[in-house]
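Progress report, Aim 2. The chain analyzed during this reporting quarter is listed below.
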Amino acid sequence: MAQMTMIQAITDALRIELKNDENVLVFGEDVGQNGGVFRATEGLQDQFGEDRVFDTPLAESGIGGLAFGLAMQGFRPVPEIQFFGFVYEAMDAISGQIARIRYRSGGTQNAPITIRSPFGGGVHTPELHADSLEGLMAQQPGLKVVIPSTPYDAKGLLLASIRDNDPVVFLEHMKLYRSFRAEVPEEEYTIELGKADVKREGSDVTLVAYGAMVHSCLKAAEELEKDGIQAEVIDLRTVMPIDFETVLKSVEKTNRVVVVQEAQRQAGMASHIIAEIQEKAILHLEAPVLRVAAPDTVYAFTQAEEVWLPNYNDIIERVNQVINF
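Predicted structure tokens for the chain:
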């Protein structure tokens, strides 16, 4: 196995699918010769040519419309929204066209589109660049929403997303791009969409998270272990659809749950997850399901970012509340 960062694993997945399927097209702002703002597509245009990997104008609405049109002509587009905070310009194409086409056509047409985009805080980006908008996507029927937390997951999930016949929004947390390396198989493999992963076994409380917050949960679990609390950490990996089977199995074992997200309390996926847990497993709960989230404000400017974002200490505080309820 090779040691890869998340960005290298993503590039590797794109290279594999461009090689495997001539209908796969990669496009977006500066993804060609420049290799993308984070170099996720570095070297791909040289290898596969300008007809397969190409730049678009700085217009997300055009990127969304182009992706939909190409999908209707038999291609498998992999467009990049340079930062996900700019997705609003493409919402008509995504929600009004891409997400609906299979239903609208009675199952005769699909939109096998994988929309890649970086998001997430902790790296001091300008305004609109770090917003967590996964909840907005997950509330649109017809879309799958994937958020990997490790290089291994990123490669396997991206390959599965590109091969999926339904549209996928594939969100990549910027802080995880180069923050660590991990073992990733050099050959191709896929990870089933809609299947969570238990990143750490535990018996006293279940921590449910996705993206960068998975690592905050793992750090919190290490600290909690010093006090004799064994926390189980579940990485959803796919936030639509959600693998509630794995979540509920853990809840039945630990009887206490904290749901963790980077998004604001009113946004993200925590509210949906909590509602499902309390509908389906309330008799297994020994305490209310609590959550860790950012405040219900516009994303803070960089000077206040570290104060605004949830961290592992916030998780520990919530865990102690459910343990001592």
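The CA atoms of residues 118 and 174 lie 6 Å apart. The mean pLDDT is 97. These observations will guide the mutagenesis work planned for the next reporting period.
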